[in-house]
Design a protein that fits this description.
The chain is mainly α. 71% of the residues lie in helices and 2% in strands. A two-stranded antiparallel ribbon has the order 1-2.
C-alpha cells in the first residue's frame, strides 16, 4: 500500500501540469481579457474628453498608441509568449504566489481566503448531513425493499432530485424568505449582525437559521444519489452467502446488517469521501448567486466574467490539488473498510 501511495503521489505531478496547462491555454485564448477591457475603458474615457496616450482617428474613434499598448501588456504580464508566462506562473505557484487580482487589486490568495469560509461551512454541513441521514435511510430502504416505505421514500427522493437547484432556490426564496408569502428565513448572509453577542447555543441557532434554505438547495441532488447508492449497494450485499450464513447462525438482525453487511456495502459509498476536499473549494455558483452568498463559487463566476486570470488560475490550482488528493484518500478509505482490497 505504501508503494502504491508513493506511486500515486509521483503521478500527481504530471496530472497537475496537464490540468493547469490546458486551463492556462484556454483561459489565455479567451477574448475580452484585462488588456482589452482596459483599452475599452481608455477609449470610452477619451471619447468623453481627454487625450492621454492615445490619438483620435479620422472617423472620431480613439486609437490607442503602441506605447500605451506595450505598457499595458507589461503591466498585466502579457509581454511574453504564453509558454513563458505559464512557466513563470508554475514557478510562482511553487512558492504559493498566485499574483494579484486584476479586479480586487489584492493578492489572489487573500481574495480566495476571504471567500473560503462561506464555501467551507456549506461543504462541511452538507457532507455531515448527507452521510448522517443518507446512509441510515439507504439501509432502511434496502431492508424494506419492495414495501410502501421504499416506494414512497423513493418517489419523494426522485421528485426532489428532478427539481433543478435554480428553480428550487427561487421557490424557497419566494415562499419562505420574504418573496411573496412568508419571511421566515434571511438570505444574503451566513450570520446575523449581532452574532458575536449571542451565546454559544444562540450562535448555533443563528447559523442554522441562515443555512436552512441555501443548504437545502445545495445538497438536494447529492442527497438522493447517496441514499440510492447506499440502498442498491446494501441490497447486493445482503444477498451474499456470508450474510445468509450469519443469519443461519442465529445472530441478531441488527448485528448481521450493521456489523457484517454494512461494512462491505459502504465500499462504493466511500467514493464520495474523495470529494471531501473538493467540496470546500468548488462552492456552488447557482446557490451562491441565488442566495447572494459571497463564496468561492460566486467568486469563480465573477472572475470568469471579467477575465481575472490570476484568480481563475488560483481557484483551478486549489481545485486540482483537492481533486487529486481526494482520489488518493478514497483509495486509502477503500483499504480501511475492506482489507481484502490490495493496490499494487
Amino acid at each position: 500500500m505504501l508503494i502504491y501511495i508513493l506511486r500515486r503521489i509521483l503521478l500527481l505531478i504530471p496530472t497537475f501540469i496537464g490540468i493547469t496547462l490546458i486551463s492556462f491555454l484556454v483561459i489565455n485564448a479567451a477574448p475580452g481579457g484585462p488588456i482589452e477591457q482596459k483599452i475599452q475603458q481608455l477609449k470610452m474615457g477619451n471619447q468623453g474628453g481627454g487625450g492621454g496616450g492615445s490619438s483620435r482617428g479620422g472617423n472620431g474613434t480613439s486609437v490607442i498608441s503602441d506605447e500605451v499598448l506595450e505598457a499595458l501588456k507589461k503591466q498585466y504580464g502579457f509581454d511574453k509568449p504564453v509558454h513563458v508566462r505559464y512557466w513563470i506562473w508554475l514557478k510562482n505557484v511553487a512558492h504559493l504566489e498566485f499574483g494579484e487580482s486584476f479586479t480586487y487589486g489584492e493578492p489572489v490568495i487573500d481574495v480566495i481566503a476571504s471567500k473560503f469560509p462561506v464555501s467551507l461551512q456549506f461543504g462541511i454541513a452538507s457532507l455531515i448531513l448527507s452521510y448522517i441521514v443518507c446512509i441510515p435511510l439507504g439501509v432502511a430502504k434496502a431492508v424494506r425493499a419492495g414495501t410502501k416505505f421504499d416506494a414512497i421514500s423513493g418517489l419523494i427522493l426522485y421528485a426532489a432530485y428532478a427539481v433543478p437547484p435554480l428553480v428550487l432556490g427561487i421557490f424557497l426564496i419566494t415562499f419562505f424568505a420574504g418573496g411573496s408569502y412568508f419571511n421566515w428565513f434571511p438570505i444574503g448572509l451566513v450570520k446575523s449582525d449581532d452574532y458575536d453577542m449571542l451565546t454559544f447555543m444562540g450562535k448555533v441557532g443563528d447559523r442554522i437559521h441562515h443555512f436552512v434554505l441555501p443548504l437545502t438547495t445545495y445538497m438536494i441532488g447529492g442527497f438522493t444519489e447517496l441514499t440510492m447508492l447506499t440502498r442498491n449497494s446494501m441490497l447486493d450485499v445482503i444477498k451474499q452467502d456470508y450474510v445468509r450464513t450469519a443469519r443461519a447462525k442465529g445472530l441478531e438482525e441488527s448485528v448481521v446488517l450493521y456489523k457484517h453487511a454494512l461494512r462491505n456495502a459502504l465500499i462504493p459509498v466511500a467514493t464520495g469521501l474523495g470529494g471531501f476536499f473538493r467540496v470546500f473549494l468548488a462552492g456552488s455558483i447557482i446557490v451562491e448567486a441565488v442566495f447572494n452568498l459571497d463564496g468561492i463559487g460566486l467568486l469563480s463566476y465573477k472572475s470568469a466574467l471579467v477575465r481575472d486570470y490570476n484568480v481563475i488560475m488560483g481557484i483551478i490550482f486549489l481545485s486540482a490539488v483537492a481533486l487529486m488528493v481526494g482520489r488518493l484518500v478514497s483509495d486509502i478509505i477503500y483499504v480501511t473498510i475492506d482489507p481484502r482490497i490490495d493496490f499494487k
